[in-house]
Design a protein that fits this description.
116 residues; mainly beta; seven-stranded mixed sheet; four-stranded antiparallel sheet; 0% helix; globular
Length: 116
């Protein structure tokens, strides 16, 4: 059974930092793409960042220069370092992974709250 577990969320003041982690288990094939999405209250889920098997990264415009996505050494872990956080970054952050081209596996999310 595939399981993605996120951690690292919490409450932080505006301008602060958090580091999210996500570890996968039960994926039989090599993971080719890892990413983060978020969903704020009353809004649709939106893309945040992704990293592929060779380390190429891509970010949503609203996080460029503030967030950094990276992979762990074990190849089934992905991180999201978030800095200069703003109240509008408040959301549930979801980890996503796949062994193909489109995200197939999703975590349950971790709450990030940024106070002004």
């Amino acid at each position: 059974q595939v399981q993605l577990v996120e951690s690292g969320g919490g409450l932080v003041q505006s301008g602060g930092s958090l580091r999210l982690s996500c570890t996968a288990s039960g994926i039989a094939s090599d993971i080719t793409l890892m990413g983060w999405y978020r969903q704020a209250p009353g809004k649709e889920r939106e893309f945040v960042a992704r990293i592929n098997w060779n380390g190429n990264t891509y970010y949503a415009d609203f996080v460029k220069g503030r967030f950094t996505i990276s992979r762990g050494n074990t190849k089934n872990t992905v991180y999201l370092q978030m800095s200069s956080l703003k109240p509008e970054d408040t959301a549930v952050y979801y980890c996503a992974m796949t062994s193909g081209a489109a995200f197939k596996y999703w975590g349950r999310g971790t709450q990030v709250a940024v106070s002004s």
